[in-house]
Amino acid sequence: MTIDDIKQLCQNNSIRWTDHAIKRIIQRDISRADVKYVLTNGEIIEQYPDDYPHPSCLVLGVLPKHRYIHVVCGIGNNELWIISAYHPDPEKWTNNFSKRRVL
């Protein structure tokens, strides 16, 4: 899975939102537009090839006003599945939120 695959599916509007993702973005004051912005302008920082039912990854993006967001997404059946999105915790991530801290 590459960021280009993700961008292409976003451009084609081949996006499926899981119930979990919708619930979490509402709770975390993250919009669907924010998620799409991250997916089209961000970078993959972790890959989860063995996830079920589809391989997934973690994408890091920075919104205007330096709001960092992580988006967990997967690709299956030519669709981009949005699994979750959140603001990374500075205690669990390095300064640029791209690597997990060893605790």
The largest beta-sheet arranges its strands as 1-5-4-3-2
What is the fold-level CATH name, i.e. the topology? YaeB-like fold
Query: What would you say the CATH architecture is?
Result: 2-Layer Sandwich
Structural class determined from secondary elements: alpha+beta
Total count of domains: 1
What does this structure look like?
The protein is of the alpha+beta class and 103 residues long. It has one domain (3-86): 2-Layer Sandwich (YaeB-like fold), CATH 3.30.2310. It has three helices and five strands. The chain has helices spanning 3-11, 19-27, 32-41; strands spanning 15-17, 43-48, 56-63, 67-76, 79-86. A five-stranded mixed beta sheet has the order 1-5-4-3-2. A hairpin with a 2-residue loop joins β4 (67-76) and β5. The longest helix has 10 residues, at 32-41. It is globular. 24% of the residues are buried.
What does this entry show, briefly?
This protein has a 5-stranded mixed sheet with strand order 1-5-4-3-2. It has helices spanning 3-11, 19-27, 32-41, and strands at 15-17, 43-48, 56-63, 67-76, 79-86.
Keywords:
103 residues, alpha+beta, YaeB-like fold, 5 strands
What layout of secondary structure does this protein have?
Blueprint: H1 3-11, E1 15-17, H2 19-27, H3 32-41, E2 43-48, E3 56-63, E4 67-76, E5 79-86
Parallel strand pairs: 1-5
Antiparallel strand pairs: 2-3, 3-4, 4-5
Helix pairs in contact: 1-3
